[in-house]
């Protein structure tokens, strides 16, 4: 009785092994088929290959260059930054309005505005230059200089 | 007049430098405290005209700048997760 049991177990193991073997062949052949399909050199497969390459490279991250800047986009962003500044009345903001006289900002506020502009565009403006920037137009010109944008 | 101008320039550059350093704190509470403290302290004494007092304030700022710098660096070594109020909804797509 015990030997019969063992025989059964053995045969089931054999069965299992056979199934596994068949399965592995099946996967091998199917992956081979994909390879043939993808890497075939005949002309009719060229498009297919191209498509496959695109699929394979899709997950790669592409880094773009910085957005194209124009003098108008700089003006818009500068104006927005200034309008969002706490102590500034957004309705008084224009390119010509002076920080000190028209917008009522003191020199400390002006420093903060210039710092906000630096953060916005990722440029650096030195103390001496910042001292000479009295209205938004000056700031825009200064930023455009730093970013190599014609104005 | 010339001395006042020198003081003014020094204060403005100190103000700017201190704010820059204070913004490097990683913890929200420390960062906001440092930024506000600097802004308030400079505003508090902005109309001071006594040169000796101004010298004293400049000295104080110069002493505190390295402290802020050091503490900001230390805070970067031991970061904690961002607070809920810091999460930028605009960046989530």
UniProtKB/TrEMBL annotation, chain A:
<dbReference type="GO" id="GO:0000035">
    <property type="term" value="F:acyl binding"/>
</dbReference>
<dbReference type="Pfam" id="PF00550">
    <property type="entry name" value="PP-binding"/>
</dbReference>
<dbReference type="InterPro" id="IPR036736">
    <property type="entry name" value="ACP-like_sf"/>
</dbReference>
<keyword id="KW-0249">Electron transport</keyword>
<keyword id="KW-0596">Phosphopantetheine</keyword>
<dbReference type="InterPro" id="IPR003231">
    <property type="entry name" value="ACP"/>
</dbReference>
<comment type="pathway">
    <text>Lipid metabolism; fatty acid biosynthesis.</text>
</comment>
<protein>
    <recommendedName>
        <fullName>Acyl carrier protein</fullName>
    </recommendedName>
</protein>
<keyword id="KW-0813">Transport</keyword>
<keyword id="KW-0496">Mitochondrion</keyword>
<keyword id="KW-0444">Lipid biosynthesis</keyword>
<keyword id="KW-0275">Fatty acid biosynthesis</keyword>
<dbReference type="InterPro" id="IPR006162">
    <property type="entry name" value="Ppantetheine_attach_site"/>
</dbReference>
<dbReference type="InterPro" id="IPR009081">
    <property type="entry name" value="PP-bd_ACP"/>
</dbReference>
<dbReference type="GO" id="GO:0045271">
    <property type="term" value="C:respiratory chain complex I"/>
</dbReference>
<keyword id="KW-0276">Fatty acid metabolism</keyword>
<feature type="domain" description="Carrier">
    <location>
        <begin position="72"/>
        <end position="147"/>
    </location>
</feature>
<dbReference type="GO" id="GO:0005739">
    <property type="term" value="C:mitochondrion"/>
</dbReference>
<dbReference type="GO" id="GO:0000036">
    <property type="term" value="F:acyl carrier activity"/>
</dbReference>
<comment type="similarity">
    <text>Belongs to the acyl carrier protein (ACP) family.</text>
</comment>
<keyword id="KW-0809">Transit peptide</keyword>
<keyword id="KW-0597">Phosphoprotein</keyword>
TrEMBL record, chain B:
<dbReference type="GO" id="GO:0016226">
    <property type="term" value="P:iron-sulfur cluster assembly"/>
</dbReference>
<dbReference type="GO" id="GO:1990221">
    <property type="term" value="C:L-cysteine desulfurase complex"/>
</dbReference>
<comment type="similarity">
    <text>Belongs to the complex I LYR family.</text>
</comment>
<dbReference type="InterPro" id="IPR045297">
    <property type="entry name" value="Complex1_LYR_LYRM4"/>
</dbReference>
<protein>
    <recommendedName>
        <fullName>Complex 1 LYR protein domain-containing protein</fullName>
    </recommendedName>
</protein>
<feature type="domain" description="Complex 1 LYR protein">
    <location>
        <begin position="11"/>
        <end position="65"/>
    </location>
</feature>
<dbReference type="InterPro" id="IPR051522">
    <property type="entry name" value="ISC_assembly_LYR"/>
</dbReference>
<dbReference type="InterPro" id="IPR008011">
    <property type="entry name" value="Complex1_LYR_dom"/>
</dbReference>
<dbReference type="GO" id="GO:0005739">
    <property type="term" value="C:mitochondrion"/>
</dbReference>
<dbReference type="Pfam" id="PF05347">
    <property type="entry name" value="Complex1_LYR"/>
</dbReference>
């Amino acid at each position: 009785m015990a030997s019969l049991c063992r025989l059964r177990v053995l045969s089931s193991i054999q069965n299992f092994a056979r199934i596994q073997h068949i399965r592995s062949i099946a996967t091998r052949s199917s992956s081979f088929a994909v390879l043939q399909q993808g890497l075939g050199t005949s002309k009719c497969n060229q498009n297919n290959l191209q498509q496959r390459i695109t699929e394979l490279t899709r997950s790669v991250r592409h880094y773009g260059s910085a957005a194209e800047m124009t003098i108008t986009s700089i003006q818009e962003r500068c104006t927005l930054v200034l309008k969002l500044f706490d102590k500034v009345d957004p309705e008084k903001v224009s390119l010509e309005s002076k920080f000190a006289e028209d917008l009522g900002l003191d020199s400390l506020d002006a420093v903060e505005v210039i710092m906000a502009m630096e953060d916005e565009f990722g440029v650096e403006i030195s103390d001496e230059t910042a001292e000479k920037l009295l209205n938004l137009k000056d700031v825009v010109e200064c930023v455009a200089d730093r970013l190599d944008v014609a104005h | 007049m010339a001395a006042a101008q020198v003081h003014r320039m020094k204060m403005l550059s100190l103000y700017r430098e201190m704010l820059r350093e204070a913004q490097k704190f990683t913890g929200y509470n420390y960062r906001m405290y440092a930024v506000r403290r600097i802004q308030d302290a400079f505003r508090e004494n902005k109309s001071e005209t006594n040169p000796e007092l101004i010298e004293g304030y400049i000295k104080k700022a110069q002493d505190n700048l390295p402290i802020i710098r050091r503490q900001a660096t230390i805070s970067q070594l031991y970061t904690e997760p961002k607070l809920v109020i810091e999460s930028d909804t605009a960046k989530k797509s």
